[in-house]
From TrEMBL:
Superkingdom, taxonomy of origin: Eukaryota
Organism of provenance: Cebus imitator
EC class (word): transferase
Pathway participation: Lipid metabolism; fatty acid beta-oxidation
Cellular localisation: Endoplasmic reticulum; Mitochondrion inner membrane; Mitochondrion outer membrane
Keywords from the named record: Acetylation, Acyltransferase, Endoplasmic reticulum, Fatty acid metabolism, Lipid metabolism, Membrane, Mitochondrion, Mitochondrion inner membrane, Mitochondrion outer membrane, Transferase, Transit peptide
EC number annotated for this UniProt entry: 2.3.1.155, 2.3.1.16
Domain Thiolase C-terminal: 298-437
Role summary: Mitochondrial trifunctional enzyme catalyzes the last three of the four reactions of the mitochondrial beta-oxidation pathway. The mitochondrial beta-oxidation pathway is the major energy-producing process in tissues and is performed through four consecutive reactions breaking down fatty acids into acetyl-CoA. Among the enzymes involved in this pathway, the trifunctional enzyme exhibits specificity for long-chain fatty acids.
Name of this protein: Trifunctional enzyme subunit beta, mitochondrial
């Protein structure tokens, strides 16, 4: 039916025999550069702020929530199920179960779609999904040899056994292990991979700097115009109330050109100015079955429609998730690129976004890598990340997915569009895309 020429409004993305699922609303804490106002908190504190903000914004009775799911990437060892700790801290019923998911930069996406699955299968009516990341404090471990020594020492009973264990100690045992933003399977850092990807698609340093400047300028404009309505203020204990993202810094191309390559020296093109920065923040959204939301008197913001996860080779296609996922999710929904009014793609690096654009605009890539006859085509820039993106707003790994969906939903409402497309790449060579449909006014 979608091959015939029809007006845009005729398409229906509702599935027979499957409940319609809506986002009532979603919020996030301000996204802050790591090492700023959130630096003394723990991840569940930031997650709790997002949950509390969601409760205030929606006035949803706490006992109505059937389930809570949060995404996170770098686990705080003490709160490995951070969703549960944050939910208890935010005053949700202790009878509401909560679990935590991880899927690199698409962890919040996974939290959302897990919630969608629970509702679609009739197990739940009301789910809160979100994500959190606190890069200000990460678990730094002793070396494996030192950990083994400590565990052996713990088991040693007699003085003799203890002395025997201690005698095995060497000074190099004290070198710590830091977590890295690197692929386990290839040992390559993500920035290095992004730089190689940019080179493979012949994306210049200037193009990357220009795209980053666009992101920061649009984010600044959106912030100044009050369009980032998903941000809720957070009174940080012992500090001031934080009200806005603090990583938005429109610079000049001249200033940006001065920076040295961050990963591949001296000829690389990926720099601190055209990459997303380490960020602290959390997001949360209220997802319901449509009939439940209406019965409770809510006016939902958007429908969550088809979604798709994809996976590629983590060596050479680590960050091409959006290119692979976009045509698949559009086909699944019976839509074309022309039907999409708002694109919200995760910006890990300028080079990654621009490489995805080049891949999407290449018949050769489509034929040789994607098994498609023709290219999917470019998202029009005037519909793309209009209120800034991860390069400027920030990217708390576990929280970005919900920000993308809320940005799409809020933009559709503001601009009067019908369909939004959210897409993101993630470590492991994985990716996600989802169709968001504006709820009729």
């Amino acid at each position: 039916w979608h091959h015939s020429v029809q007006t845009k409004t005729k398409k229906t993305l509702a599935k027979p025999n499957i409940r319609n699922i809506v986002v009532v609303d979603g919020v996030r804490t301000p996204f802050l550069l790591s090492g700023t106002s959130y630096k003394d908190l723990m991840p569940h504190d930031v997650a709790r702020a997002a949950l509390t903000g969601l409760l205030h914004r929606t006035s949803v009775p706490k006992e109505v929530v059937d389930y809570i799911i949060f995404g996170t990437v770098i686990q705080e060892v003490k709160t490995s199920n951070v969703a549960r700790e944050a939910a208890l801290g935010a005053g949700f019923s202790d009878k509401t179960p909560a679990h935590t998911v991880t899927m690199a930069c698409i962890s919040a996406n996974q939290a959302m779609t897990t919630g969608v699955g629970l509702i679609a299968s009739g197990q739940c009516d009301v789910v809160v999904a979100g994500g959190v990341e606190l890069m200000s404090d990460i678990p730094i471990r002793h070396s494996r040899k030192m950990r083994k020594l400590m565990l052996d020492l713990n088991k040693a009973k007699s003085v003799g056994q203890r002395l025997s264990v201690i005698s095995k100690f060497r000074l190099n045992f004290l070198a710590p292990e830091l977590p890295a933003v690197a692929e386990f399977s290839t040992s390559e850092t993500m920035g290095h991979s992004a730089d190689r990807l940019a080179a493979a698609f012949a994306v210049s340093r200037l193009e990357q700097d220009e795209y980053a400047l666009r992101s920061h300028s649009l984010a600044k404009k959106a912030q100044d115009e009050g369009l980032l309505s998903d941000v809720v203020p957070f009174k940080v204990p012992g500090k001031d109330t934080v009200t806005k993202d603090n990583g938005i810094r429109p610079s000049s191309l001249e200033q940006m050109a001065k920076l040295k390559p961050a990963f591949i020296r001296p000829y690389g093109t990926v720099t601190a100015a055209n990459s997303s920065f380490l960020t602290d923040g959390a997001s949360a959204m209220l997802i319901m079955a449509e009939e439940k939301a209406l019965a409770m008197g809510y006016k939902p913001k958007a429908y969550l429609r088809d979604f798709m996860y994809v996976s590629q080779d983590p060596k050479d296609q680590l960050l091409l998730g959006p290119t692979y996922a976009t045509p698949k999710v559009l086909e699944k929904a019976g839509l074309t690129m022309n039907d999409i009014d708002a694109f919200e793609f995760h910006e890990a690096f300028s080079g990654q976004i621009l490489a995805n654009f080049k891949a999407m605009d290449s018949d050769w890539f489509a034929q040789n890598y994607m098994g498609r006859k023709t290219k999917i085509g470019l998202p029009p820039l005037e519909k793309f990340n209009n209120w800034g993106g991860s390069l400027s707003l920030g990217h708390p790994f576990g929280a970005t997915g919900c920000r993308l969906v809320m940005a799409a939903a809020n933009r559709l409402r503001k601009e009067g569009g019908q369909y939004g497309l959210v897409a993101a790449c993630a470590a492991g060579g994985q990716g996600h895309a989802m169709i968001v449909e504006a709820y009729p006014k």
